[in-house]
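JOB MANIFEST
job_type = single_chain_structure
chain_count = 1
residues = 280
[input]
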Amino acid sequence: MQVVSISSLKGGVGKTSVTLGLASAALAAGIPTLVVDLDPHADATTGLAVSPGNNLGIGDMLRSARRADLAANVVPSGWVETARKQPGNDPKRRPVLDVAMGSAYSGIYDRPDLGKRDLRRLSTLLGKVTGYGLVLIDCPPSLNGLTRMAWSASNRVLLVAEPGLFSVAGTERTMRALDLFRQEFAPNLAPAGIVANRVRPTSNEHTFRLAEMKQMFGDLLMEPNIAEHANWQQIQGAAHSVHHWPGDSAKQAAGSFDALLKNLVQTGSMRNRVMRRPAG
């Protein structure tokens, strides 16, 4: 089971959008996937069209991590039913896209002084579940307790950045923070890579920043870039999978996330990449 934290220390770069795009691609590919919504704003939970019922949110489960039953409290994404109704879908195939729901209560752990025992809370919860090929953790845009808790529970970290000055600088800071965290708490943790999001191919500034990112981060800069799409907000506002949204623009976006997911989950050199600092 691959556990991937999707992180950025700068807000507004589309971290949750990338999480949702990868979840959509995993659903289309038939990979049993769990999304853990660790951001107290719970935007991923909303975007995945979850009907909570009486299930516990992730904040309540973290509070009693040793006793809580994560498997009993995950909720299927509303996207699953849509996937089953797609033309040509094998009725015997049961797609799996579950959600550990976000909650404002998890914010009590989003502080800088979280101890080692608290950092293991999410690891304890995930250690009780089986049957998933992929776990995606949507982290808050900070390096406080929740992000560090997610990193402690993960195999790899996927960083999200926009091709802009502040975002690129923030990504470099995140890489250095990840390096320090690995040395102190998680020696087996490694970056899955960096995905450039909301890219405008016609923008000279974006072209310049992408070249800068390639120089700074080398082959950690993943392919493909995720282009800015005019109807992305409409898709998210409808709490809909991009793979099931009509139109050429959505089809192109879905193809980008398919390729990104393939690069993310592939075995070999990426999985075993040795952690290194970005070039100065």
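[summary]
Residues 267-280 have pLDDT under 50 and may be disordered.
The chain is about 40% helix and 10% strand.
exit_status = 0
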